[in-house]
Structure formats: C-alpha cells, structure tokens
Amino acid sequence: MIDFRASVTSAAVAVGVLLSAAFGVSASAHAEQVVPSNNAEVQLSFAPLVKKVAPAVVNVYATRTVEQRQRISPFFDDPFFRRFFGDRGGFGEPRTRKRVQNSLGSGVIISDQGIIITNHHVIQDADEVRVALSDRREFDAEIVLKDERTDLAVLKIKGEGDNFPYIPFADSDQLEVGDLVLAIGNPFGVGQTVTQGIVSAVARTQVGVSDYQFFIQTDAAINPGNSGGALIDVRGNLVGINTAIFSRSGGSNGIGFAIPANMVKVVAAAAGDGDYVRRPWIGASLQPVSSDIALGLGLDRPRGVLVTRIFPDSPAERAGLEVGDLIVSVGENEINDPDSFGYRLATRQIGSEATFRILRGSDEVALDVALEAAPESIPRDTRDIGGRSPFSGATVMNLSPAVAEELRVPDEYYGVVIADIENGSNAQYIGLRRGDIIVAINGVEIDNTRVLERAARQRPRGWLLEIRRDGRLRRLSVRG
C-alpha cells in the first residue's frame, strides 16, 4: 500500500489525496479535499480511479417479445362492436405478429457475487436480460427485484465461481454541492464512457422521474444509455445511480439526476428478503407548506410538512402526532416538502424508530415514531369482474394500508380499488384506471369487492359511477 501523503509539494499533496482515495487509503470524507492552487495541480489525472472502478460498470441489454394484433376492420377492437358481433362476426380473422424490442442501459455490480443495480425502466417488461463487462465477457442475468416506485431493479449474473469486481457504497448524505464526481456508463451504445463534473445540487425534488423525488444533480455529462450507470466520488465509492437528464434535444445539457446511494442500499437489501420493497408506514397524511400557510403559522419561510390527517391505531397516533403539527426534521435531516419526508422515511429500516421534531403552535416537540410495515388490516379479496358491466375486465381489491402502498393510492385506506385492467375491456373503454377507487354505483355505496361484484351483475338502463381519482371525486354516466 502506497502512502502518497508524505510528499512535500502542494502538487504532490493533491496527487496523494487523489491516489490514496483511488487505492483505498483511509481518509475522512472532506478533511483532505483541497482546491487546486497552481497549474501542476490542475493537470492531475483520474486514470487510477477509473481503472479501479470501471470493471464494475456493465452494459445491460434487455429484450422483450411483443405481439401486435392486426384486424381486417379497424372496428374489431371496439368493445361496442364486439358486444354485438362477438370475437369474429363479420370482421375477419385476427392476425398476430411478433416483434422483438431491445433496450440498452448500464448497471453497477455492488457485490462480488454478481449482484447488479440498474434502472427499472431499462429492464421493464424484459423477457431476457444480458450484461457485458468491460473486459468483454458476457453473461445472462436474472431479474431478482423490480421497484417501479424508485425506478430501480436488482439483477444477478448467472455464473458460478466468478469473483466479480464491485463498487462499494458511499453514504450519499455526506455528499456536498461542489464535490467532484465521475459518471460511468454506455451512452448511445458507443461503449463504456467516463465523464467528470461536480455535484450541482443535492436533495433535488420536483423532477417527475419516480415516486421518490430526491435526486443528486450533477453536470457530469449523462446521455441516453447512461441510465443505471455509476456516479462515483473521488474515493471510488458509489454515491448514486444515474437515472435521468433534463434536455430539450435528447443529449446532455449539463443537468443530470442520480438516485442517491442510500436509497439504492434499501432496494438492494430488499432483494435479499423477497421480490418487493417493504417501506415504513406511519399512518398520517401530509401536505406541503405554502407561503400563505407559513405566514399563518408565523414562520419566517415555508418549511416542513403539515399533518392533515391521522389514521386510527397507527404509529403516528400512538406516538402522539396531531393534526396541525408541523414536521420540520426527521433525525438530523431537515424536511422541506413531502418528497424529502418520504425519502427520509424510505431510507430507514422497518422496525426502527425515527425522531420527528415538531412545531406545535409556539412549542417545539420531539416525538419518537415507530416505523412499521403498512398492515393489511382488511383481506384484499381480489376479484376479476366479468359480464357486460362497465367494470368488465377490471381486477378489484379491498383497500388497506398495504394495498394502498402497493398501488400508490394516496391516503385512502378504505373501500374498493381497481388493481388492474385488461386491455380492450369495457373498463378500459369507458376510461377507468388502475388505482381508481369505486365509491358508489347508482347510489349504492361500495365498501367491499363482494358488493361491487353483485352490483356489476345487474342490468340497469344506465350506470352512474362515483370514482375517486387522485383525491378528487368524479361522476361518470354510462349507458346500459
């Protein structure tokens, strides 16, 4: 092990910091970071660092086969015509053509056992996944876990006996604006590419990429094909997974976003426990604090999240959280909006506790809130609705906190929800969607799937449906 810190010139000191980081010499996160002070220091190279980490960044090739139906008549798929003419009557035989779709992205090996992290959108609906290492070895890969909510997926290389290179995780909460980072991936399929930049922002929300809006922003060039690739620090540790760019042209404009390593750790750990990610649930509804709300609360600026609802027998209720409380921090981390609050919860373990700092009127209160898995307090009683009702082709479930978590239904834990809709069905034709909550049918309240199934068997002259979507009640009239 070489210790370059014994050098005496300022240039040698800077080289020592870089190379000691690259070769694993212990150093505190920021104590030895220096700003270049002369031309010699500017001419430093990241080559030793790249040689160390590049073998753990892979190309990901995903393929899927899709079937395209071709009809002699364009009316064949219309549920109205099929209702009268059936599947074939007078419209000719359907033709099916299979087509292979390919997608290309990047991935990062995080374990010597060949565990890989990539983006969910890279391998979404894939039938086969293959990965290529930087030394040109290729392997088939198994999809272990897909988590659409974080846009992350876990793969495992199908190969025994290989001690694969990997990149260790960093604590992404220690990342600061201005830190140097490298992005490694396969942009546009040209081959493995390394770009360098700085951290432009941390805790970036309102990006619109996944459910958990909390990203590292960097000006290191990220392009299509970089998705799933590594964002590393100057110590060779993984600080994020490159996921998205802001671009008007499709290429890099210097605004790229990466999922923080602390979120990646949660998804990677979940892959060892099952095929889905279980997240902490506290049983409270929250809303952002606007300028008007901040003024009404006597705050000097908008901050925190406001508690608007507490669910009975929830961790929030048991901890003493109240409607009107303003949550301003979770542990040592400041909270500015519901996205940052959701991220801080999601990166903590179920079964642990989190200390919430609360502003309640003029008082400041600290509450220890248990972090539990969302309970399935009501059996979901899944049912597929058939017949000729507007709900034909819909799969419905009874709502519970667990089901609401799975289907991403905000703050609704009671009633009946649509879990899936068959393509070409009546339910799809009239505009019903996954996540819609069925409130009432022709004035009859729908409180469980059995009642909905019974109502769907009726043959009224018309249907008046009450649906809650995105927190708003909608009324839909359908002819019988």
Can you put this structure into words, describing what you see?
The protein is of the alpha+beta class and 480 residues long. It folds into five domains: 4-43, no CATH class; 57-157, Thrombin, subunit H (Beta Barrel), CATH 2.40.10.10; 172-271, Trypsin-like serine proteases (Thrombin, subunit H), CATH 2.40.10.10; 280-366, PDZ domain (Pdz3 Domain, Roll); 383-479, Pdz3 Domain. The protein has twelve helices and 27 strands. It has helices at 10-22, 39-42, 47-53, 79-85, 120-123, 261-271, 291-296, 315-319, 338-346, 401-407, 426-429, 449-456, and strands at residues 57-70, 95-109, 115-118, 128-132, 138-147, 152-157, 180-185, 193-204, 215-218, 230-232, 238-245, 256-260, 280-281, 284-288, 305-310, 326-330, 333-334, 353-360, 363-370, 372-373, 383-384, 394-398, 416-421, 437-441, 444-445, 462-469, 472-479. The strands form five sheets. Strands 21, 22, 23, 24, 25, 26 and 27 form a seven-stranded antiparallel β-sheet that branches. Strands 1-2-3-6-5-4 form a six-stranded antiparallel barrel. A six-stranded antiparallel barrel has the order 7-8-9-12-11-10. A hairpin with a 5-residue loop joins strand 10 and strand 11. Helix 1 (10-22) runs parallel beside helix 3.
